[in-house]
Every structure is written in C-alpha cells, then in structure tokens.
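USER:
I would value a second opinion on how I read folds in token form. Give me a protein, with the fold worked out from its sequence. Write it directly below this note and I will take it from there.

ASSISTANT:
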Amino acid sequence: MQLEFDFVRPEERRTWRKTRNGGGSDHTNKPVQLSAAARQRAAEALRSELIRRTGLRVALTVTNNHSRMLSFKHDEAKSLVRVRLHHMFLSAGPEVIKALAHWINHPRSKKMGALIDQFIRENHDQILTPRKRKLQLEARGIFFDLAALSDELNRQYFNGTVTAKITWGPMSGGYRRRRRSIRYGSYNDEENLIRIHPLLDQEFVPRYFVRYIVFHEMLHAYLGTSNSTTPTGRRRLHSREFKRLEEVYQDYTRAVAWQEKDTNLRRLLSGRGTSALERLSG
C-alpha cells in the first residue's frame, strides 16, 4: 500500500497562528536552517522515533519536494515501510511525530490527518518554489516569422493591446509515429505565451492559415482565459464572444476549410518535405 500527503496549493492556504504541538510557543512560519550534519542527526532521530512508535522497520528518505510532503509504502516482502518526508518534518514536535506514526499504522484513519495537514500549512515557507526554466523563444521559422505575423495581426485587429510573446513550440519526441491529430497552437495565461506547432512551418501550408492560428491564440490572450463551464462541467474555452470575434478574421472561412480538409492534415502529420522539423529535432 502506498499513501501520499500532498501540499495544499498557495491559493488554498489559510493563515495559521496556533500553539504548535501543545508546547505553548507561537509558530512564526520561519524556516528552520540546519547544517548537513545536524540534518542527518535529526533524520536519524526521527526515524528512530517512528520505529519506536510504529513497531515497524522504517527506511526514511528526507526530500525537498515542492508538491508531495509525505508518502509511505509498505514493503511486505522485507517487512519494511519506506517513508518519504519533506525536510520540514525534521523540526516536528512529539504530537506531529505521533500523528505520522498513527497514519503509517492506520492509513485509512482520518484521526491524525488534520494535525499533519495543519503542520504542513504552518510550515509552507519551507517549501521551495520550483525554479522556472528560462524560456527559449524562437519565433523565426524557415517559412514563417511568427513575431512578424503577430505584430501585423496585433495592429490590424487588436489595436496593439495584446502583449503575449510568441514562439514555435517544441517538437515532441517520436513525432514520426502514427498520429491522427495535431494541436496547432496554445496560449498559456501564466506565461502570457503563445506556442505554435512547428509542423505548420512548411512550404505547402498557406500563410493565411498560419495567420489564422496565430490570430486564434491571440484572441485567447485578448479575451483572457474563461472560467465558465459547460452544463456538463467542462471548461468553456470558446465563448460566444470568442466565436463572434474569431469570424472577424478576414480569411476565416477559407482557413477553416483548409483545416477541415483531410489531405492537409495527413500531409502535416507525415512530416514530409522541408520544414522546421530538422531545425527543432536535429
């Protein structure tokens, strides 16, 4: 059996100012800085305490995971429980350790879950924010310059108000295997970034179609990400307003007709001919 305890996302956090572990001291949410040697001693002390309280053999791994704070897995063959804990638990008091031991022995019990959850919330400042990779933007293709198309469309349709960056997206591995569909473009609201599929950077693809895909994604950036849902609960990406404005694009009808032609899709997915494939996957 394997169970996990995930970190509650920042937007779901509450401010906690409660007495910690019954000790009467106020918890200040400040990270506890330990040297490597002190951390190793604390980890061994915690492992020993878990062994004492659970009556099981315990293999403990201390992590810096930013999303999964606690997990354990029973290895029946070796009569062992493998426990992974975020390093915040190295500073846990007796009540929290007792709750951990109870949870390991009784994984379906909710009795101690609230205490563990509170401890994680109180110590969220010790969770490292994952380092964001530096975006590598490449808008100039072999046949189409996305930045030039975006600037042109921004002036023509959006009065220069769209600030989203644009790039050719990555060519996913194994693109030559049989595929039946393609996602032409996407807009990431958090990054304010438009990605266009590099298979569109081919000589046979009409300029008006690439412009249409760029326009479509710019429209997402212009209107913002919709939070509305359909009657079945699915997220609504294309509102009535979106569809109305999309049809304003001067080549909308023939762009949609080109997209719906099966031979064009098959030719795109075949990856034949000179294209951005060699540049992006080579």
About this structure: The longest helix spans residues 36-54. Strands lie at 2-6, 57-63, 68-75, 80-86, 165-168, 185-188, 193-196. The domain at 146-281 is CATH 3.30.2010.10 (Zincin-like).
